[in-house]
Design brief:
This protein is an all-alpha fold. The protein is built from three helices and no strands. This is Integrase core domain-containing protein.
Length: about 90
């Protein structure tokens, strides 16, 4: 199944129009950048890649009823995802 992804441009200096990515950047700053010291680009790349893997698979998300994405998927994959949790793209 293919789904389309649309690139959305927002006006400069309007983070309230893109709250999801602003929230992610805040979490990335707090939980990755501030917790590590990077010696070089490869070191930074390694830590950020490791964090994104953690974020996408194991980190608990408030928007997923404080489950990790993997736990959330396992819980709802057979019975369907809650309609009230749908995100409008």
């Amino acid at each position: 199944m293919h789904q389309k992804i649309y690139h959305e441009r927002i006006p400069p200096k309007s983070p309230n129009l893109n709250a999801f990515i602003e929230s992610f950047h805040s979490i990335l700053e707090r939980e990755c950048y501030q917790q590590n010291s990077f010696e070089c680009f490869d070191d930074a790349y390694y830590h950020v890649d490791k964090f994104i893997d953690f974020y996408n698979k194991r980190r608990y998300h408030g928007s997923l009823d404080y489950l990790s994405p993997v736990q959330f998927h396992e819980l709802y994959k057979d019975k369907g995802y809650p309609e009230e949790m749908a995100v409008s793209l």
